[in-house]
Prior knowledge:
Rossmann fold; 4-stranded mixed beta sheet
Amino acid sequence: DITRFFICFSGTNLQALIEQAKRPSSSAEIVLVISNRPGVEGLRRASLAGIQTRVVDHKLYGSRAEFDGTIDRVLAEFRVELVCLAGFMRILTGTFVKKWSGRLLNIHPSLLPSFKGVNAQKQALQAGVRVSGCTVHFVAEEVDAGAIIVQEAVPVLPDDTEESLCDRIRQAEHRAFPGALELVASGAVRLGEDGHILWKETC
Length: 203
Ligand code: GRF
């Protein structure tokens, strides 16, 4: 429903990434925010932070390939090196995912591989788990799969509603996503040829 939509998709992860990138120690600079919907909060947050924005409205494209092709062209135009999907609810084509392999990050509101797909918080409540959380991972062709970069666990409390669990997981997301971005942007973590994470040796 509309309320939940606004509660759960208001660009708060984007905001956490913006804050991270502003730090002098950050290895990442956010050069562009793309939305597939006009007028969303994330675009406003980006503009307020002085970041360029583009809307690529999926409704104006006849196929996923054309939509993804346009996104790819915009990313090239801005010389983007790394893409973070923060509340981006469109499935990207295999061509796009392959091209951006190792440079495409997603956040999901569960401890993957549990509760893939939509309504992850609801799935967790229905399963009766006592712990859930969030996962930042490299995007692979299979939805909500791909090498895991960072996870943070949160408790599931007896009186939790979807909303209260969503809020608790979101707090964890705001730590996990900036953390994962820094790990990848700094080169501390990368995706190996075999699809597994490679950590840079520090000694
Ligand atoms: C987050 O729960 C994220 O895990 C999911 O979409 C939601 C986006 O929230 N992919 P927000 O728009 O960043 O507040």
